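User: For documentation purposes, I need each entry recorded in a consistent format: the amino acid sequence on its own, followed directly by the corresponding structure tokens. There are two entries in this batch. Please keep commentary to a minimum and don't merge the entries.

Assistant: Recorded as requested. Entry 1:
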Amino acid sequence: MDKPVIQLLINNEEFLCRRHLKHIEKKIIDESTKDFNLSKVSAQDLSVGQLLDQFNTLPMMATYRTVIVRAVDEITKNNEAAKKEAATLADYFLNPCPSTHIILITSKIDKRTTLYKNIVKQGNMFEFKPLYADKVPAFVAAEAKAMGLVLERGCAEQIAEVVGLNLMSIVTELEKLAVYVLPEKRVTLKQVGELICFATVDNVFLLSEHIACKAYAKACEVFDKMCEQGEPVVKTTSLVITHFRKLMLLKSAQQECLPESEWAGLLGVHSYFIKKYEQQANAYQVPQLKRVYGLLMEASVQLRTLSVSDGTVFETFLQKVCVG
């Protein structure tokens, strides 16, 4: 290795970022001297001066040492103290220590700043973003292939539908499937159904039916049941958003006279489930679907920003669509 590795990781998808970090650690860290030459620190706990001390410390019995810094957001805050710290750190990257690998992890950074520009001049930037719902089946298929599994048509879509957008949970379910089908490698829809609980998807369909009928009490019962089953409210909201997005897509396809044979591909679901989606889409008018979707997106934002309980946010959403 001719020069030290310097990387800036913009982390908005923890699983993908963690996987990349694990890969780079394996590549650059010498296990025999790891105890002496690996520092994992947080910018929340150290000043920039202390960080520079870490960067400038010489390796022990090795060519390089590695410093991994999390919470770099603390240095990029928009206040005078942070700006001074950022300027000092930016100057360091004009001439970084030649014997220190540096991995900086942040959730956001202004790409117009001197700090950002100096870092990428010396190294690389990797940005990890959450996958859109329509990209998750491809992720499932790729992970399954890497595990040596052969998924029957429709399995990737169904796993994505049931598990949602949490990539770590998807990998966990695939690992369970790999053990479940041993000594075989082929995975069928039936086996996915046997191992991964389909109750969540059934509950989402039930919620949609009750919302269409404005049956507030019944919708609350289904929501309470999902909470009792351990489903996080954020995940439930995400699944319901995805469900109504598909209903709107199907409604649009019907209006544009798209052949029924193309509906499954458009929605990213197995053809087996299309009839259920069609029945639900027919229960809604387009303005009603748009209103429900808009209120869902509003609830999704509130879950991330308000200090009230998650359950209260979702119950308020149900009240608005069923009663209001």
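Entry 2:
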Amino acid sequence: MAAYKVLIPQDIMEEGKAYLRDKGYEIKMGSGITVEDIVKDVADCDAILARTAPFPAEVLEAGKKLKVIGRHGVGVDNIDVKKAEEMGIWVTNAPESNSNTVAEHALGLIIALAHNIVRSDKAFRAGDFEIRNRVKGSDLEGKVLGVLGMGKIGRLVAQKAYHGLGMKVFGYDPYLKADEFPQWVTKVDDWDEIFRSSDYLTIHIPATPKTKNSIGAKEFGLMKKSACIINAARGEVVDEPALVEALKKGEIAGAGLDVFAEEPPVKDHPFFSMDNVVVTPHNAALTTECMIRMATHAAQGIDEALNGKKPTWPVNNPSNPR
């Protein structure tokens, strides 16, 4: 029997490729990341190890032999999961690969905002030593961190902020019961209240039709003028023009952003000229260690599916897998 072939449209860490080769799979590196490229490349492949390229129904239908898509990371909004399930194609992801790494990054954005690290660095390099006397930071101890979404990442941010920084932590997650919240997190049941009460509001909810642009002008209007918002989840959940306006008008004090409505953002995006905004290029999960975990966990899901096993981290559940 010929070896199963795995398409990798975007390169991954060598450890993930070695995992597949050691299991006897043939690897096919993709020719590009457009839908047209992937449609062409997937024709003779049994699996796809997917990063951020699009995988709509058109790609799935072109994969006549396709049995599984292993997502490098957690979010699957770039994959037509429903269509895959209808076609008997497994979709897996790697939910245990990047939680701690993204939580660390979110906290880094919080600290950078509180202590004006990026703004001070920029001014100091330009010869402005006296910025130290003009721009004051803010202690985090005792401040309220609002965590929107108490999943794996949100829970880790809460843990690190409470135990490591001495922050008070409020959490909002309508899918969890009170006894499912950690004891150091105050459960907030009202959406508006989490925005009103937070000094720092960190977003950890997925992008869905329900959550798209769910954080907008109303929410920013509820926040303290001294508050900051952090988004290391998905850019689509924030109404970006409304955020720009809130920052310009001083309705909120700042923002730490790793994700954007359009990636990459346009070169003249207003965020890039704002001193009260810290931006990173959607790299919260891109540490060496995390990249290795994402690659190997995605490869593991592919191997499990191709061997007729139920994957450890399934996203869907096809009733009649190919």
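Summary note for entry 2:
The chain has a mean pLDDT of 97.
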